[in-house]
Amino acid sequence: MKLRTLIALLFIILFFQRLCAQEFLGQHSSNYAGINRATFNPSSIAGTRYRYHINLISWNATVNNRYFKYFRTDALFHTFKNPYTETDMYGKSKLTGTLTQGENVNVTAELRTPSGYVGLGKNNWLVVGFQSRMRGFVQGSGVPSVIFDSYKNRLDDGLTKASSGSFKDFTFNQHSFFETGLTFAAMPIRIEGLIRVKVGATIKRLSGARNVYLNIKSANYQVRPLNQEEYVLDLSNVNYEYGYTQPVKSFSLGSLFSSEYGSGAAVDLGATVELGRIRNHSQDRANYILRFGAAITDAGKITYPNTGKQYSGTLSKLTINQEKIIDLGNNSVKNLEATFGKPDSRDYSYSTQLPRTVNIDADVQFARSFFINATWIKPTNTGALPTYIYQPELFTLTSRFEGEDVEFTLPVTWIQGNQNPTIGFSVRFGPAYIGFSNFGGLVSKSVQPRGSMAYFGIQLWKLNEKALTKKRKSQRS
C-alpha cells in the first residue's frame, strides 16, 4: 500500500504542473469502457478481457441548467445539426453551455454511432476495432461580454443595460464533421503478474459537414433602449470577415461518408504499460497496481473544396435587434450574407486542423476494484479559429469503483482559464451509463462555469470465458 501511495503522489505532483479536461470524464479511465476508451488511447483495448465489445449508441454534449427545464433532446445535437436545418436553432442553442469562462466559448457535442472491437489470439493480444461518430463544435475567441450577454439574455427581456465601448479580434466558428476509423491494438509484452505493454493506432477518415465563421477585427458598440423592455445593439466602424464552406443542406446518410463538402484524414497513436498485480483478485476484473498511458489523438485536418465563399469589408454602422440575433442563430450563412453583404468575394481557402492533444493518464489500484486516476490533456496545435479546433487544456483527478455490473466515478476537473475546478460524477449499471462533468453548475446558478458535459451510452460485451477458465484452473493447480 505504501508503494501504491507513493506512486500516486508522484504522478499527481507531476500532472498538477499543468491543468485541463475532456469527453466522457470519469468513464474515460474505466476498464469497462471498451471501444469508447480507444478514442482517448487506442492501445487501451489490447489484452482486453472481452471477446468482443460493442457500443450501441452513446452521446456527449455540453448543456446548462436551462436544458433540464425544457428538456429538449434535439438540443443536445445542436452543434452538428447546424449544417442541415434552420428550424429553431437559436432556441436550442440557448440550452447548451460553454465549458470555459472569460473570452472563450467552447460548446461541443458528439454522437457515437455503432462501433466495436473483436479480440484475437491468446489473451486477446491483438484487437481490431471500428469506430464511427459525429462531432460538432461551436467556439469563440475574444468574445466581448456585450456580444455574449446580448445572445444569452436577449435584447427584449428587460434585463439588458445600456453600455458602450469597443472590441477587437472577435471570432465565432461553427464546425462539424463525421469520422470513421479502424483501430489496431496489440500487446507485444506480457509477463504475468509483472508487466503488460500495449500499443495501438487508429486511422480515421473525416467527412466534413460545414465550417462557418465570423471574424470582427474591430468595432465600436453602443447598447441603447428602444423602450422599457427592448434594446438594440449599434455597431460602428466595423471591420469584418466571414466565410462558409456551404449553405444549409438537407441531411442524408450519404453525406456522412461523402467528400463533397470536405474530406481529410487523422491518426491516433498510443501506448500503455500495466505493472504488478493484486493477489487473489477476481479473474474477470482488471488486475494491476499501476497503469500508465500516453497517446496523441486527432492528428490530422479537413480540407474543403473551393465551392465555399469568404467575404470581407467595413461597415460604418450596423444595428442588431433581437430578431436579427434569432435569424443569425437559426441560419448563420444566409443571415451573415443579409447582415454584412457580399463584398470582396473569394473562394473559401481554409483547411481546419483537428484538436490535436497529448493525453497522459496514471491509474493506481489502491484496493480491489478501487482506483485513483490522474489525467492530463494537453493541446499541441496552435493557430486561430477557423483554421483549427480549440481544445482547452485540462487536468482531471478521478476516484473510481468499478465492477462488471456496477461502476461509480467522481471526477474533479481543472480547465485552463476557469477560476474554480468542476466536480462531476458518473454511474454505470450493467450496459448503461450516465454522467456529468460539472454537476454543481447544473443545480446552482452561482457556480461558474455554468456548462457541463453530459453523456449517456449503452454497450454490450462478452467476456473471454475460455481464457478466464484457463487462469482459474492454473491457479488451482
Report on this model:
With 477 residues, the chain is mainly beta. Helix content is 15%, strand content 47%. The chain has helices at 2-15, 67-70, 78-81, 89-93, 145-153, 322-330, 332-340, 439-443, 465-476, and strands spanning 50-63, 105-112, 115-120, 126-141, 163-191, 195-225, 231-244, 263-275, 290-303, 309-320, 346-347, 351-353, 357-367, 370-379, 394-402, 406-415, 422-423, 425-429, 432-436, 452-463. The longest helix is centred in the N-terminal third of the chain and has 14 residues, at 2-15.
Brief characterization of the structure:
The protein has 477 residues and is mostly beta strands. It is built from 9 helices and 20 strands.
Number of domains: 1
Give the SSE string: HEHHHEEEHEEEEEEHHEEEEEEEEEHEH
Largest sheet, in brief, is: 20 strands, antiparallel
Provide the residue-averaged pLDDT: 85
CATH topology: Porin
What's the CATH first level?
Mainly Beta
Helix content: 10-25%
